[in-house]
Amino acid sequence: MDDWTSRARCRFEDPDLFFPTGTSESARTQLEEARRICQQCAVRRPCLDLALATESQDGMWGGTTPNERRRLRRGMRRQPVVLVGSR
């Protein structure tokens, strides 16, 4: 199994950067810095997939905030299920 975390760009960063506290200007600046790092990461998708699968409620994962992931999950639930080979 491929360990995508060993290729994550954030592995060299302070983990606290990806988990700001509050909604202050400082916290927003911190989130934007984390997002910039995520946008340059080669394993953004598996990171986001993990956060969606585990319903992570905190931090920046795959370049998304908790609110952005909640919207993604709601959108995923609204999509119709298509069964392969069904008629």
From TrEMBL:
Residues 9-71 form the 4Fe-4S Wbl-type domain. [4Fe-4S] cluster binds at residues 10, 38, 41, 47. Residues 59-87 are annotated as: Disordered. The Fe-S cluster can be nitrosylated by nitric oxide (NO). Upon Fe-S cluster removal intramolecular disulfide bonds are formed. Binds 1 [4Fe-4S] cluster per subunit. Following nitrosylation of the [4Fe-4S] cluster binds 1 [4Fe-8(NO)] cluster per subunit. GO terms for cellular component: cytoplasm. Keywords: 4Fe-4S, Cytoplasm, Disulfide bond, DNA-binding, Iron, Iron-sulfur, Metal-binding, Transcription, Transcription regulation. It is found in: Cytoplasm. Its cofactor is [4Fe-4S] cluster. It comes from the Bacteria. GO terms for biological process: cell redox homeostasis; negative regulation of DNA-templated transcription. Acts as a transcriptional regulator. Probably redox-responsive. The apo- but not holo-form probably binds DNA. HAMAP family: WhiB. Belongs to the WhiB family. This is Transcriptional regulator WhiB. It comes from Nocardioides kongjuensis.
